[in-house]
Amino acid sequence: MDAQKLTSFSASGGCGCKIDPTALQQILEKVPKQWSQPDLLVGIENNDDAAVMRINEHESLIFSSDFSTPIVDDPCIYGRVAAANALSDIYAMGADPLIATAIVGFPINHLPMDSMQEIMRGAVEICQEAGIPLAGGHSIDNPQPIFGLSVIGKAHTHLVKTNAGAQIGDLLILTKPLGIGILASAIKINTIRENTYQKFIHHITQLNKPGSWLGKQQGVHALTDITGFGLAGHLFEMAKAGRVRMEINTAAVPVLEEAWSLVREGVVPSGAYRNMHSYGDSIHFDDEWNIDHQLVFTDPQTNGGLLISAVAEKADYFIEKLKEFGFAESAVVGRVTALNGTEAPVVFNK
C-alpha cells in the first residue's frame, strides 16, 4: 500500500462510502421522529438534506453535517470536494450558508502533516468562495482519512425547500451530469484521461450556490442534491416524501460521456450495485435496458447536481438562469405524475 495515496486508505471514496440505504432505514426505524419541539420544522422524517429550526416569526436556521472519505489523492482537492459537498446540503434546502466548522479524522502516523494542512487549505478556499468563515472544528486520530463540515445556514421560513413538495404536473430539472462515481473508480485504477479528469474535478468542486436563489423562486416546489444514493435513490426519496411518481426521460439526463464506455468495461463503484439492490422494485427501468445502462443512474455522486421539481411554465426560465450561474448542462429530465396502485414510484423510460 502506498501510504502517500489518500484513496488507498478507503474502499470507496466520496459519497460512495455512505451506508447502504436499506441498512440506514433499519437504523432510523426506531429513532424517535419528533421531540416535543414545535419549532423543529424538518427532522429525519423524509431523509431530507438538513434539519430546520424556526428561530423567530420569519426566519429559520438550517443545520447539516457531512463528511466523506477521499475521492482523489490530491489533498487540497479532497478538501475542496468535501467542503463543497457539505455546503450542498444547505443550498439544497434553498438556504444561505452562514458559518462552518470542520470534521476531521486523520491517520497521523501514516500520512504527512502537510497533507492535512492542504486538506484544510482546500476547505478554506471553498468556504471563502461561499462567503462564510471556516471557524474551527473537531479532529481525531483515525486510521481512515475523513473530512467534512458542519454548516449552519439561514432562510425565511416560508422559503425553505424540502424534498417533499413535488406536485403533479411539475417538471424535474437536473443541474450536473451523472457519472462521478464511475470516473472516481477509473481514477483509482489509473484508467482516466487528463481531459476527463479535469471535467471530473470541475463538477465535484463546483458549489451548488444556485440553490440559495432557487429557494427564493415561486414555482420551485421541491429541492434536493444528488449524492451517494444516485439519481435513482434521490428520486425515490422525493417521490416517497411527496407521494407522487417520477417519470424520467433518460435520453435527456446529462451524463459525462466517458462514463458510458467505462461502465461497459466494468469500471463501476460498488455503491452503484448497492443502490440498485437497495431500491429494488421501487425503481423501474425500461425492459430493454441492460444492467450497464441502469448502473449509470444508480451511480453514487459526490457533490452532484441539484434536483429541482418546478412548475412547468417556469422550467425554461430556470434552465436559462442556471446556465447563467455556470451550470451549462442543466436540463429538464422528467416530470411528476400521480402515483397509482402498486406501480413503481420512479420509472426510467428509454
Structure description:
Helix 4 packs across helix 5 (about 195-205), helix 7 runs parallel beside helix 9 (about 270-280) and helix 8 (about 255-265) crosses helix 10 (about 290-300). Helices cover about 35% and strands about 25% of the residues. It contains 11 helices and 13 strands. The protein folds into 2 domains: about 5-160, PurM-like, N-terminal domain (60s Ribosomal Protein L30, Chain: A, 2-Layer Sandwich), CATH 3.30.1330; about 170-350, Phosphoribosyl-aminoimidazole Synthetase, Chain A, domain 2, CATH 3.90.650. The chain has about 350 residues and is of the alpha+beta class. It has helices at about 20-30, 75-90, 115-130, 180-190, 195-205, 210-215, 230-240, 255-265, 270-280, 290-300, 315-325, and strands spanning about 40, 50-55, 60-70, 95-105, 135-140, 145-155, 170-175, 220-225, 245-250, 285, 305-310, 330-335, 345-350. The model has no long low-confidence stretch (mean pLDDT about 90).
